[in-house]
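Quick bug: Protein phosphatase output formatted oddly.
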Amino acid sequence: MAVATAAHYYPIYNQPSSHHKQKRFFTSRSASYHQSNALAYHDEHPHQPQHHKSLPLLNFFSKSYAKPVPSYIFAHGASGFAKRQRYTTPDLNKNRNEHYYSIQIGEDAYFRRSDAIGVADGVGGWQGVSAANAALYSRKLMHHAYLELERFDNVDDPCFYHYDEADPVSILQKSYEESMQEAQQEGIIGSCTACLAILRHEELRIANLGDCGISVIRHNDYIFRSEEQQHSFNFPYQLGTSSPDRPKDAQSFTVAVEKGDIIIMGSDGLFDNLFDREILSIVKSQLSAFTLPGSGNRPPRMLSIEPQKISDALAERAKAVSNSKLNVDSPFQVRAVSEGLYYQGGKADDISVIVAIVKDCEDSPDRRL
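Here's what came back:
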């Protein structure tokens, strides 16, 4: 998917060179997880009896006391359409009693958690190749990404004590290794693109490889938009069989988020069919439906935003464009024409959309407690 809106919507950066990860910070503040608020007791008398040791008291009323970092979670919704109307999800449980934590949409797959979202797009070029199953490969990748994130919730797992250090590229790497191992054991081949986003306090940490995408909207405008990674036209970076690309080649971003920010994540079926300006227009129209008009001195008031309705609206519109070949423009058409190809209308593809709203964690600052 291509960046099709005006450049002022979001920062534009040069594409990272192949096989070199670049990490960008979309905040002027230091990353909170690199700072420690813990009080460390320095023992200047190593032979002092243990009962004489004490920690200093913390004055919560002192002006020097640092307030806790805001802790947020996602409220989210997801929608999608398979490219083939009669598409049947492969029998993923054949000869085994397995449960996948990822959802299949054609050859797309995604997962959702209160602190993370992810989407993968199985590469359709494997169609017709013996033993190929790009749909299963994308589902495995997202399934194992979900399981890796679960480790941070398990008090018996060492990851529990490194919750704030979660890194989407590392998660993608471990998921990739597990998926490749299973694929080899089961004798299947395939590949997929992928996008992961992890929420830690006021940071959104992103890893994007290929042409899935993610954007962040605040106050009716973009504050962030990912870039696609393409080797050449319609040949995205991908993970899997015979691909030289690796998770370390993913673009890595850190975005400072606030309560109420709207995150749009999707496969290329969304971004190949809808321009950024159209996505923004649909989001605005949905927000206006949840806004009570003001009167007199009373300003307009926003009701609770329903991410499911936003994702439904985006997926429905992307589907309508993908099925149309006349009198409609699409980002994919624009790129095809720029390559000297004749192309009209939208791009028929699987469509997966996740909409996540940043909201307060109502309980403990550590959302696991």
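Actually, after a second look the formatting is fine. Residues 69-87+100-291+303-360 form a domain with the Phosphatase 2c; domain 1 fold (CATH 3.60.40.10). Closing.
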